Amino acid sequence: LSDRDTYAVIGAGPAGAATAKALVALGKKVIVLDAGLTLDPARELARERMAATLPQSWSENDVALTRYSAQGARGAGYKRLFGDDVAFRDDGVLDLFAAPAVGAHPSYAIGGLSNVWGAGVLPYVERDLEGWPVSASELMGAYEAVFEFIPYAGEEDELSARYPLVVTPDGPLIRSDAGEALLARLRRHRRSLEDAGYDFGASRLAVRVGHPAPARGCIYCGHCLDGCPYGHIYNAAQTIEQLRHEGLIDYRPGLHVDRVLEDGGGEVTIEATPLAGGQGVGVRATRAFLAAGAVSSTIIMQRSRLLPERTEILDSQTLYLPFCWIGPVGRTGREPGYTLAQAFLVLDDPEVSSRPVHISLYTYNDGLSERARASHPRLSSLLGPFLDGITRHLVIGICFFHSDDSHRILSESQPESSTVSLEPVQNPATSVVLGRFKRALARKLGPLGLIPLSPLAEAPSPGGGYHYGASVPMRSRPLAGESDTLGRPVPARRIHAVDSSCFPSVPGGTVTFPAMANAYRIATTAALGDGA
Amino acid sequence: VIGVTGASGYVGGRILAHLRTSGFETVAMVRRPATTDARARPYALAQSLDPSLLDGVEWVVHAAYDLSQVGDAVGVVNCKGSLPLLDALAARGGRAVLISSLSAFDGAGSDYGRAKLELERAVLERDGVVVRPGLVFGVEGGGLFGAIARAAARYALMPMVGSGRQRLFMTHDGSLCELASAIVAGDVHPDRPLFAAHEVPTTLRGIAQRLAHANGRDLRVIPIPHRLAYLGLRCAELARLPLPFRSDSLRSLSHPIPLHQVAALARGPVEFPPLRDDLWRG
């Protein structure tokens, strides 16, 4: 295969979709190479049946099939899409050894990790970008461009002072009663919270709001955490499918990209293994954009001799912190609503960490009590009939820490071998920061009726929160193992790492959205440099 | 010509006035037409129609509703009682705009909600337009909102069933009137009931506290258990005591429309503002 003047995008996740969008907008010829695993057919059919009707007419079988279940090939630790572990299924090309203490895993599904995305869309601001060679204002135009093709639910509120809305959201989502009461209480204590370093506000989500539902927006069926049957939670697969449908990209699923090699003649060769078996494939392109997700992109760069055989991937440590909410949960809590994050809280307190910590707050939903039953069966049966009443007062905080405060992941991979191993690298600072963080929350939020249940907190192993990257950090003057501000690993000129692997650090926050914006920025700048 | 039933009530009256000032030719269809209003015609639910009632009428804004009925009579008077008007209107090629309520929805627990829902079906079958407002507020503050506003201005303590946490959508009367005139002007063609309220709900308690704050005071809520309140109201009703609030209204309040049904409703061209102080203080 030979494609001169073609731009190759490797991976069809959020960064790949943003890159493809940017290139198509400049009229470039784009080819997307992707493993492209899809949902299992029974579940896809169930999803289609559900999407064709209103939630009250869904069949019990379809709901049961597409809801989270504790059993599965990969165990309970992996997030599922409509009950399927497609986002983390292997494509059978690499011999991947991931140590039990590593949560990171490549995603080979079309849409990548956006299949199981919490959909939070908060921009990185200057404070998050300390140490980056790219400023927040340079990313601003790309944020706007990304909002052109992803839905946006949010509202102007306290949070907007520090985290700009960028564009006007499509509208707010209607919060749960507990979510509403919780935000109201935080607002009443705004001054003292701000003095203690907290910023807070309504969540901002890549969720479609519009009427009438479900044709144009969220219908509040409460299925969010298992995937939206109507497709109102953004998934990069939607963008890829749409571009493909409009004939604007050449989407080639079923390919596992092994190496990306630059020749002297100003071209790039991409070597890939077909998943269906048979001879390896070579694709030639003007430029290649690595958007396979930080783990896969890192492995590809290692196998292409662009990164050392032992390369560290930085993680943003995740902490699942349950709170007991002493406050109204409402009489209407029993009915479904949307079950993604209700509110965002950011703690920027030097006594806790030199970096801000992001907290997404989820309130009670049926899924939570199901999960509580599945993960603590004995405790649940003991509590029996009271469990529902207790879980109603449960608020789950998913907290993300800066990579400086987090453990890391060591990726070992050699150019000539298909064996890859991922090992944890401990950071002694992590447990200190986590401890200070829990104590700070207990001191400040406890008296407001949001009491952290620290003994029940769970810190997943490195990579378990799916916020990682920075294996080939962007620098203004890159050395070996680093990249320039266009994500080009030294010495490459036509190969760009555009996903979070080129982040200089992983700030605690919503990683996907800035990763999309950064990919958009790199693709636009690189393609503009080539001229028409 | 546009007829407005229930024009002597709060919502019907506001709509009639708005249509008049917007230049529509209107007739008030009321039980006892005022002798001073030459453009009023006699109409009452569940009674025979005056032969000249619909002369020249293209649209009827149907806002009449008899709140005094209880039990089975609610449906008989309000729903069946509206059919002669709806049929006569449809036979002349006219259309109706029903001012329904967000208490009307599939699975509504109150007699009020069920009667409105049945009425909605009748109107939609006859090519009419259905509007579902929430709790209507405005400067003149009629109905429940007016009662809360008066109480919040006077008392520092307010008893509330279930602590007043029930979800409520708020409808500014001015926007409701604008929506009604957009419909009779032929600008709106929904295939389902129109949602006519601010998109973000509030609670009874939230409203009362907001009104109290606007008067520079704090309001404390005395929670009343839901069951106790319901039993009390039922007993009083059985004893035929005159009450300002009925057990059926409590059912409406405590079992609000599910959000997924709200989301599925149609939207009109009019924006509904939240409960802002300048919109009810005048």
Task: Please describe what this structure looks like.
The complex is a heterodimer of chains A (532) and B (282). Chain A has 532 residues and is an alpha/beta fold. Chain A has 13 helices and 19 strands. In chain A, the strands form four sheets. In chain A, strands 4-12-13-14-11-17 form a six-stranded antiparallel β-sheet. A five-stranded parallel β-sheet of chain A has the order 5-2-1-9-19. Chain A is globular and about 70 Å long. The longest helix of chain A is centred in the C-terminal third of the chain and has 18 residues, at 428-445. By secondary structure, chain B is of the alpha/beta class. In chain B, strands 3-2-1-4-5-6-11-14 form an eight-stranded parallel β-sheet, sandwiched between helices. In chain B, strand 5, helix 4 (111-125) and strand 6 (129-133) form a beta-alpha-beta unit. Classes of the chains: A alpha/beta (532), B alpha/beta (282).
Strand content of chain A: 15-25%
Annotation field: number of helices of chain A: 13
Portion in strands of chain B: 15-25%
Average residue pLDDT of chain B:
89
Q: In order across it, which strands form the biggest sheet of chain B?
A: 3-2-1-4-5-6-11-14
Rg from alpha-carbon coordinates of chain B: 19 Å
Largest interface by Cβ-Cβ < 8 Å: A-B, 23 and 23 residues
Principal-axes geometry of chain A comes out as: globular
Instruction: Quote the average pLDDT of chain A.
Output: 92
Q: Profile the largest sheet of chain B.
A: 8 strands, parallel
**How many beta-strand elements of chain B?**
14
Model regions low in confidence, pLDDT < 50 over at least 5 residues of chain B: none
The spatial strand order of the largest sheet of chain A comes to 4-12-13-14-11-17
Helix content of chain B: 25-40%
Based on secondary structure, the structural category of chain A is alpha/beta
